[in-house]
Amino acid sequence: MNTPKEIEGIRFLGLEKLDEERLAIKSLINKSIIGLFFWVIFLLLGAIGSENLLSTALILGVLIYCFRRLFFRYKRFIAEFKTRVINTIVQEFGFHFRPDRGLHLNDFFSVYDSYPASYRSEDLIFGELDQTEVEICDFAAFNMEPSGKMMKGLRTTTFQGILFKATFPKELTHWVYVCDKKEGCLRKEGEIALMDSPSFNRYFDVFTEDQILARYALSPKLMERFCGLKEKFNCPISMVLRNREVIVAANLGKNSFEPSFEKSLLEDSTIRDYISSIKGFTDMVKELGLNNHIWK
Fold first, then answer.
1. How far is Cα 102 from Cα 99, in angstroms, rounded to an integer?
2. Which positions ≥6 away from 89 have C-beta within 8 Å?
3. What predicted TM-score, i.e. pTM, was given to this entire model?
4. Fewer Cβ close by (within 10 Å): the C or N end of the chain?
């Protein structure tokens, strides 16, 4: 019986059925891998020939069918997981969720000065908090690098994490770039501006075409709070202040809204991890003080 489950005051429906599907897909993955392994062994033993061509084609056909079935079942499971888990959590915090939408590539270019060979932008969380419009999404950027003597392209991950965009309390005439010192390929326009915060300068470089404006926008409180985010996420994190917007890119090195097939959805700790992550992202509005309008 699929009874509702309450975790951290949030009521989840259908977790038992969802976890059964997780186990079924995990089993199917294992069987497909074993089947592929034996098919490769079948070929290596020289079994492919005119007399065994039919059996070889038959095995290959079965494997293709299994992988197609696995792919579509996996996609359905992901969609159901995001509906029953991620969307439920997001709504509890007063936001909306669209798994098929994300922030624009130009928002990524505001922070990074590197054009990806491909990218993925999805799982958009959006809404308004204390007159501050907020958009958060999972974003991944990939590049192709040469590999081996054949110089074949190998896809490498340039960025995988969270893009955060929100209303900035004051309109700026020039952009201000806050660049994590441990991250590469960041956009750096203008001249470097040394801020009056040793802890902030230890983590970040600031670039702008207006030094006075940079010090005006990056108040001591904002710099202190952004250092707090850096320590909280423990990853490269950069920020751009532009016009009436702030964009933050946290390169977490993972997808924050996908299920793990190794963790049971019936364990409270598994769901609490998603609750904690989403709360951490939405709380960035308060942690940066964007809802306080402290610059006005």
1. 8
2. 10, 274, 275, 278
3. 0.86
4. N
